[in-house]
Specification:
- The chain is an all-alpha fold.
- The chain contains 21 helices and no strands.
- The radius of gyration is 26 Å and the shape is globular.
- The two termini are about 30 Å apart.
- About 40% of the residues are buried.
- May be involved in iron transport and iron homeostasis.
- It is found in: Basolateral cell membrane; Membrane.
- Keywords: Cell membrane, Ion transport, Iron, Membrane, Metal-binding, Transmembrane, Transmembrane helix, Transport.
Length: about 550
């Protein structure tokens, strides 16, 4: 069969690939992430523009998004687990795109009638519009989280089947799509807003999501049809079997049950009524939250997941914090754009390297190699703290800037603090807005910093893919949603902590301290992974080398995931 398939003409094999469920997932993911990246970039710009070039609304939006995923991640994952796959995917898609469309229309109205809204009801109507925009945008982000869990963490696993190499290739391709859309989508919407207006930008994003929603809905249905395994879900099947068994028992007993059995049945009925009471249902989200975190802690890949979360506690990435620091060190918008492009290329190289190293060394060892690579590259960032041109100065208290903005020079508390937290999880402000950058004595420090950040992306993305596949392979099907929901919560928690760290030390002189703290957290994360890898490899070697199953000296192979 394989030889016959290999003898097929090239155009026929290409045609089969374009019709396959794998390609349809890629296409649907590309459409989804393109819309997500455009919206995530644009909403930050829109909120800054609406509030008079202040980051206040953006900061509030970032806090709301991070807090919502932190609190609701497990609940969203549990909902993904307990419902049919197609229903979850289609519901998440419709809610996400509808929320973005509604938010875009609302922003268009605010941009068009902002002057009139400011005067109505002493500006409270405009404030209400701000609250509605942030709330609807947060709903869109939660729906996007559910969509990401169900497609990237569940559907991809089912489509790949038992072929781990195919799963690794699909994960890498999905991540390459993420990298490309992360660069190209903001560029497109940025050009539209630059040559048009924010009003036109809102309209374009709303129109794109309306078009994309219909096409993605169709692609999901086609993938579902082409992959019959998606119709069967472990957790849902077990619940249905248990309910059917209970009904059959009731039917068999009929009216011939003894008084003891009848009493037991009444007690069970009372217990069911108790469990479906109002208080029980109201506290169900709290129990789900608790059960999700307990289940996450009890997973064999707990330390691997924690290691990935610790990598979010860093300022060594291309977000608004690092680009803002680069601007203070004399880099203009053109240079920053080139550096962001180099970072994307480095990330793509990391995803390609992941597939190659995994085939040669196994999955767990790939994570070890990726961690060593990332840590080695980040030593350049530590060196940049002490290199010529670095503003690092511990004699200047990192809290002086905060106290100055809060209390002013007189020492009395200001009525409206001008300090705005730079909290923007997962949002990147376009670095090309900077026209002129301040002059510095030496570029050695900032050059080492970005050389380390860009080079470390190779190890970072390889490590990210390693942990992602470990979770896919080791978490049972009925718990994929809730475990990945908790993983997202952990990621957002550490991401939020790193922004709080920047709030406490916002001045450039303290950035070197933030770099050292960031590298320390990355090192702690990889130490957790090294512990996980050591225990996993040792246990598998012990099982493989047991007296009943000794390896052949001529072929000492191990399972593919080792």
């Amino acid at each position: 069969m394989e030889k016959a398939a290999s003898k097929k003409p090239c155009f026929e094999r290409v045609g089969e690939f374009f019709k396959s469920a794998k390609f349809l997932i890629y296409l649907g993911h590309a459409l989804s992430t393109w819309g997500d990246r455009m919206w995530n970039f644009a909403v930050a710009v829109f909120l800054v523009e609406l509030y008079g070039n202040s980051l206040l609304l953006t900061a509030v939006y970032g806090l709301v998004v991070a807090g919502s995923v932190l609190l609701l991640g497990a609940i969203i994952g549990d909902w993904v687990d307990k419902n049919p796959r197609l229903k979850v995917a289609q519901t998440s898609l419709v809610v996400q795109n509808s929320a973005v469309i509604l938010c875009g229309v609302l922003l268009m109205a605010v941009f068009q009638f902002k002057v009139q809204l400011t005067t109505l009801y002493n500006g409270w109507l405009l404030t209400t519009c701000y609250i509605m925009v942030i709330t609807i945008a947060n709903i869109a982000n939660l729906a996007s989280t559910a969509m990401s869990i169900t497609i990237q963490r569940d559907w991809v696993v089912v489509v790949a089947g038992d072929d781990r190499s195919k799963l690794a290739d699909m994960n890498a391709t999905v991540r390459i799509i993420d990298q490309l859309t992360n660069i190209l989508a903001p560029m497109l919407v940025g050009q539209i807003m630059a040559f048009g207006s924010h009003f036109i930008g809102c309209g374009f994003i709303s129109g794109w999501n309306l078009f994309s929603m219909g096409l993605e809905y169709f692609l999901l249905w086609k993938v579902y049809q082409k992959t019959p395994a998606l119709a069967f879900k472990a957790g849902q099947k077990d619940a249905d079997d248990q309910e059917l068994k209970h009904l059959n028992v009731q039917k068999e007993t009929g009216n011939s049950e003894s008084p003891a059995e009848g009493s037991q049945l009444m007690n069970e009925t009372a217990e069911v009524k108790k469990n479906t009471s109002c208080c029980y249902q109201m506290t169900e989200p709290i129990r789900t939250f608790k059960d999700g975190w307990v289940a996450y802690y009890n997973q064999s890949i707990f330390f691997a997941g924690m290691s990935l979360s610790f990598l979010y506690m860093t300022v060594l990435g291309f977000d608004c914090i690092t680009t803002g620091y680069a601007y203070t060190q004399g880099l203009n918008g053109s240079v920053l754009s080139l550096l962001m492009g180099a970072s994307a290329i480095s990330g793509i190289c990391g995803t390609v390297a992941f597939t190659w190293i995994r085939k040669k060394c196994g999955l767990i060892r790939t994570g070890f190699i990726a961690g060593v690579t990332q840590l080695s590259c980040l030593t350049l960032c530590v060196a940049s703290v002490f290199a010529p041109g670095s503003p690092f100065d511990l004699s200047i208290s990192p809290f002086d800037e905060v106290l100055k903005h809060l209390f002013g020079d007189s020492g009395s508390l200001r009525e409206s603090p001008t300090l705005v937290p730079t909290i923007e999880p997962k949002i990147q402000i376009n670095a090309t807005v900077f026209e002129k950058a301040p002059q510095v004595e030496s570029y050695m420090s900032v050059s080492l910093l970005f050389a380390g950040v860009i080079a470390a992306r190779i190890g970072l993305w390889s490590f990210d893919l390693t942990v992602t596949q470990l979770i896919q392979e080791n978490v049972i099907e009925s718990e994929r949603g809730i475990i990945n929901g908790v993983q997202n919560s952990m990621n957002y928690l550490l991401d939020l902590l790193h922004f709080i760290m920047v709030i406490l030390a916002p001045n450039p002189e303290a950035f070197g301290l933030l770099v050292i703290i960031s590298v320390s957290f990355v090192a702690m994360g990889h130490m957790m992974y090294f512990r996980f890898a050591y225990k996993s490899l040792r246990s598998r070697l012990f099982l493989f080398c047991s007296p009943e199953q000794k390896p052949d000296p001529n072929n000492p192979s191990l399972p593919n995931s080792v």
